[in-house]
Amino acid sequence: MRGLMMEYPLTLQHILQRAYRFFPAQEIATKVGPTMHRYTYAGFYERTYRLANALARLGIRRGDRVATIAWNSYRHLELYFAVPCMGAVLHTLNLRLSPDQLVFIINHAEDKAIFIDQTLLPILEKIAPQLETVKCFVVMGATSAADATLLTTLPCHEGYEQLLAAEEPQFAWPELDENDAAAMCYTSGTTGNPKGVLYSHRAIFLHSIGECMADTLAVSQSDTIMPVVPMFHANAWGLPFSMTLAGARQVYPGPHLHPRDLAELIQAERVTVAAGVPTLWLGLLALLESERYDLSSIREMVVGGAAAPQSMIERFAREHGLHILHAWGMTETSPLGTVAGIKYYMQDWPEEKQFAVRAKQGLAVPMVDVRGLDEDGQEIPWDGKTQGELLVRGPWVTAGYYHDKRGGAAFVDGWFRTGDVVTIDADGYMQIVDRTKDLIKSGWEWISSVALENAIMTHPRVAEAAVIAVPHPRWQERPLAVVTPKPNLEPPLTKAEIYEDLAQKFPKWELPDDIVFVDAIPKTSVGKFDKKVIRQQFAEYRLPTV
Amino acid sequence: MRGLMMEYPLTLQHILQRAYRFFPAQEIATKVGPTMHRYTYAGFYERTYRLANALARLGIRRGDRVATIAWNSYRHLELYFAVPCMGAVLHTLNLRLSPDQLVFIINHAEDKAIFIDQTLLPILEKIAPQLETVKCFVVMGATSAADATLLTTLPCHEGYEQLLAAEEPQFAWPELDENDAAAMCYTSGTTGNPKGVLYSHRAIFLHSIGECMADTLAVSQSDTIMPVVPMFHANAWGLPFSMTLAGARQVYPGPHLHPRDLAELIQAERVTVAAGVPTLWLGLLALLESERYDLSSIREMVVGGAAAPQSMIERFAREHGLHILHAWGMTETSPLGTVAGIKYYMQDWPEEKQFAVRAKQGLAVPMVDVRGLDEDGQEIPWDGKTQGELLVRGPWVTAGYYHDKRGGAAFVDGWFRTGDVVTIDADGYMQIVDRTKDLIKSGWEWISSVALENAIMTHPRVAEAAVIAVPHPRWQERPLAVVTPKPNLEPPLTKAEIYEDLAQKFPKWELPDDIVFVDAIPKTSVGKFDKKVIRQQFAEYRLPTV
Q1: Distance CA B235, CA B79 (A)
Q2: What would the mean pLDDT of A248-258 be, rounded to a whole number?
Q3: N or C end of chain B, less CB within 10 A?
């Protein structure tokens, strides 16, 4: 027997309309050069309608992919809503990818149009001639004389502001099905070509509601939220959608992502929630050692994309009174999967024990199911010890990759295989101990590179550390630590200091066979340690223990 | 183009499983006689599984309706989950209805089984012989010798505890579609037979998530929540579902609903959120004048089902430091429709102005659309003045009534007509000025009975007040106020006092033509003023102004 409730589709149209009706005066602020661009939800709403008309006039039809190459800004937000609400598919391109990867992705997605920040036009120069499906390029921001040569080579180009100015601020949105595609994002694996994840309206809608729940991110109309995580990285963790749904004040940093930019923005805009990868916050932590900012407006600094070292969580709390909220997710999971909030019965626990909980990746958020499978395909017990690959399931988890046959191996019995090796403790907190491919196999034992990295990064004189597996004739693999010392140390950091520290925390056989100091650790386009590149750099390296 | 996300159905099975996996040690406490029954989510989970097996053995199949006649308790909660999760439909019966109404409802819904509290068996006595479809009765609580005669007349009867004890604590839940029916509840209109609202899993699931959002009720695992609103009244406003989803501590008052019971429970159990109709809280307010309780654990007292007088909101705040959260909903809307939280830009407003906002019914919660239509079918402006009938739309709003042709008139263009006359102000706050049928038509003007009632109830010597329309030869209708003075007043309350007060707030023509003092104002089964009965009582009444 069916229920007798309304068939009300969960689409982004509801979010846009609600934002305008209930929060027309709420502000959206974007850092543009040395100043701030500010307007209200009402202004955003009107321009989004104009943009939808412009898209229609450019020939964009339902289901067409519209790509963006852009920083976090109000214009990008307009595209976030106009494109899906008119029935097309928003395709955010990672501007840090190589030209080859971008060409592959754009052609594979068959993007019809590309909206690009003027400052990013040099990217186009390298790829435009190879794009097979793009009919039109729209430039956001005033073009300069230097751009003229490039622009003449394009099949069609428009200025974003001129385009909007020519349109009416009304648009009759089509009726959408909640399962219609709304957005897509390619994820670059460690091998092969990037794979496309295709988000539905329903997935993004439920994910937005999920982020507003009291025990997840509690996104509220009383918040001022700054997504530092790029809008081309899993939709800036869905925050532009959940902020708009809640009616929160929005702050976009544009391309200004240096620790000083962020500290200044938090201070000036009274940001309550900021979200980004650990390296960003490690940078901020370093800055706060020498400069003072009033960051007291912060209620939560959300950290995801890579594991937050416990030492970082502790230092922000103890030295600056700032609360880090550790979360985990993937492009394939929209991305919110787990959040490491403290449970009711832990509130009286000693601080030290609470930090240990908060350094885990956390509890599965409502609507997401998690489990761990061991190598025999058996579900691991929730004992905090047994390791297994994390599997997830839920309405905002991908069911496959766009036009890609490699999808099959990523699923088992309707669950998505994350490739993360985890434990789940009796309280339900998931902890990533490694990526399946980053575990170090030493003899019959596994060594967690993540555990070693986190431990080394707790050393007060270490800035960053990555640990990789290096082939070893006797043990198969052994760990090598690549470490960046803090700047201007006197006396310089020594291996012995680090070993002394590690020896207290790990059995002897788990210690790295060597420690190498480098100026900087290679990172991926989204700020994670790029193990692939580090391995290449040390391909010829010979361990002293061989 | 379709999105490529998992088809993950939003069903109550997810809520049940999640509660067990993440909050097995969380407590559910029920007042049973002079003591408390306590167990954990793990215990609840196990018994719910046993109950599902018992239902199957009693012959309950998918889509079958299983009725309850019960107070708020852990056993009722078990039914809330076992019945829908095994694919059947939970049908909560309002135990305060007349025998005739109950017989109609049970036969109309074709209930297969009835689960009834032992203390409520006298209800069965009057209706059992007329029930056409019920195959079995299950009694919750130990039966007494006095029950024996009744029980022998039933076609089949079982004891709830014996039933559970005989079953296994495992059950293979069927795969459900999220649009499958999960629960039903009949609403008694002012005319004709009650009408059935049939909730789907999807509707209840989304409603549960909706109640956990930071800007609605913010239901959290760190809360202790006591639904005083009956579990047969729009699913206790959905709280048993949202509490379980969040992993909150649950407190059920059983049949103990006197102000002293509630004050004692809040104090002893450290309740953070309590929910009920205004008359309950008015009773508590009166109690607090003479007795002292520590109610400091409360973060929110949710009031709905009828308008909360502003004076009550103010008095709780000023005299007791307690925060009332005003909400609006109907059986047809699952029920949460609006919540009167304060917006970010109102936080610095003078207290008086904030109280005025909080006395409105509030902002539509996410996923619910609201609009007002005037008599010409035109949408009213959001100016806080123009009145219109409230229309709502959303995934948890009913699309019709169960096997009932009267449904058609309740809808217009896919919107549900609430019958409430409202204004919506520029901030988006909806305020009920009256029911369509409770407005008083005086000459060419409308008078709001609700506004008069609220004003009279602000008088410090008035306990309760209802205002009805009385026929008038010249003006068509004129208002009559029916007032209950506070007990033991010296000197007694006079009409003149009330008129003096009202004259400062209303134009002369809006003042009641008379004020009548009564010992008690008739109330409906869910605690609202029963205007129908009051009108009957005063059917022969002749206004002094005629």
Answers
A1: 12
A2: 96
A3: C
- SS3 readout for B359-422: CCCEEECCCCEEEEECCCCCECCCCCCCCEEEEEECCCCECCCCCCHHHHHHEECCEEEEEEEE
| CB-based contact A367 B4, cutoff 8 Å | no
pLDDT at A342: 97
Q: Which of B5, B27, B225 is the best residue to mutate to test the A interface, defined by the most A CB atoms within 10 Å of its own CB? A: B5
Q: pLDDT tens digits, residue range A412-446?
A: 999 999 988 899 999 999 999 876 667 787 765 66
Triad A158, A236, A464: Cα angle to 5°: 120
Residue A187 has pLDDT above 50, yes or no: yes
Structure tokens at B391: 């229309």
Q: Do B366 and A179 touch (CB under 8 A)?
A: no
DSSP state for residue B119 in the 8-state scheme? G
Q: What percent of chain A has pLDDT over 90?
A: 81
**Residue A44, H or E segment:** helix A41-57
List of residues 6+ apart from B192 with CB closer than 8 A: B406
Alpha carbon distance B81, B12 (integer Å): 7
What CA–CA distances, in Å, run from A381 to A74, A436, B20?
A: 46, 19, 15
For the question of residue B343 being annotated catalytic, the response is no
Q: Which two tokens stand for residue B62?
A: 């998918």
What was the pLDDT predicted at B190? 47
Contacts of A160 (CB under 8 A, 6+ apart): A75, A115, A138, A139, A140, A141
Domain at A440-537: CATH architecture: 2-Layer Sandwich (3.30)
Alpha-carbon span A91 to A182, nearest angstrom: 9
Q: Please state the φ and ψ torsions of residue B142, each to the nearest 5 degrees.
A: -70, 130
The answer to whether the CB of B6 falls within 8 A of the CB of A399 is yes
- CATH assignment of A12-214? 3.40.50.12780
Q: Is A419 helix (H, G, I), strand (E, B) or coil?
A: strand
Which tokens hold the place of A259?
A: 């620790």
ipTM over 0.85: yes
Using the 8-state DSSP alphabet, how is residue A92 labeled?
Answer: E
A207-221, A343-357, A448-462: range with lowest mean pLDDT:
A448-462
A369-435 and A440-537 agree in CATH topology = no
Q: Name the residue ranges covered by the structural domains of chain A.
A: 12-214, 369-435, 440-537
Q: Which candidate from B198, B344, B347 shows the least CB-CB separation from A3?
A: B198
Could you name the CATH architecture of B369-435?
Roll (2.30)
Give pLDDT tens digits for B461-514: 999 999 998 888 777 788 999 999 999 999 999 999 999 999 888 888 889 999
pTM of the model as a whole: 0.87
How far apart are alpha carbons B77 and B19 in whole angstroms?
13
Are B18 and A347 inside 8 Å of each other by CB?
Answer: no
